[in-house]
Amino acid sequence: MTTLDYSQLALFILILGLTAKPLGLFMQKIFAGDKHFLTPLLGWLEKLIYRVGCIDSEEDQTWGKYATHLMVFSAVGCLFTYVLLRVQQWLPLNPQHFGPVSPDLALNTSISFTTNTNWQSYGGESTMSYLSQMLALTLHNFLSAAVGISVAVALIRALARRESKGIGNFWADMVRANVYLLLPLSLVFATILMSQGMIQNFKAYLEVTTLEGVKQLIAQGPVASQVAIKMIGTNGGGFFNANASHPYENPTALSNFLQMLSIFLIPSGLAFLLGSMTNQRRHGWSVWSAMTIVFVAGVLICAHFEYEGNPAFKNLGCQSTANMEGKEARFGIFHSALFATVTTDASCGAVNAMHDSFTPLGGLVPLLNIQLGEIIFGGVGSGLYGMIMFIILTVFIAGLMVGRTPEYLGKKIEAREVKFVMLAIIIMAFCILGFTGWGVLDARGLAGQGNSGPHGFSEILYAYSSATGNNGSAFAGLSTNTVFWNVTLAIAMFFGRFFVLIPMLAVGGSLARKKIHPGGEGTFPTEGPLFVGLLIGVIVLVGALTFFPALSLGPIVEHFEMLAGHSFP
Question: For residue 382, which of 470, 257, 468, 322 has the smallest C-alpha distance?
Answer without folding.
Answer: 470
